[in-house]
């Protein structure tokens, strides 16, 4: 057991040395690739302006999202009307999607409860 711990410590030390060696060059490369997005000088006023621009952009995208929602809803209504022609493959995909949604819901509930399976802390 002790030998495994020493091996693990050695590997962790080597990994941290590799990260320390290459992190600075990676950081510089990342900044260079994204320099067109960097605001100079980085002031509070500039951050406030960017936040307002993001909010306005999100507001402007609502009509497109609204239209896409109704288009998807129309597609689902059409599928429901023609459910006799529905293939087993499509029904299976829909069932798997529903199962995935339920799994994400359960995972969110577990996280919300503080990673307990039995109930909420009171």
Automatic annotation (TrEMBL):
Sorted UniProt keywords: ATP synthesis, CF(0), Hydrogen ion transport, Ion transport, Membrane, Mitochondrion, Transport
Keyword Kinase set for record: no
MF term (GO), any: proton transmembrane transporter activity
GO-annotated biological processes: proton motive force-driven ATP synthesis
GO cellular component terms, semicolon-separated: mitochondrial membrane; proton-transporting ATP synthase complex
Main location: mitochondrion
Superkingdom field: Eukaryota
Location of this chain's protein in the cell: Mitochondrion membrane
Endpoints of the signal sequence: none
A Pfam entry, by short name: ATP-synt_G
Entry's family note: Belongs to the ATPase g subunit family.
Protein name: Mitochondrial ATP synthase subunit G protein
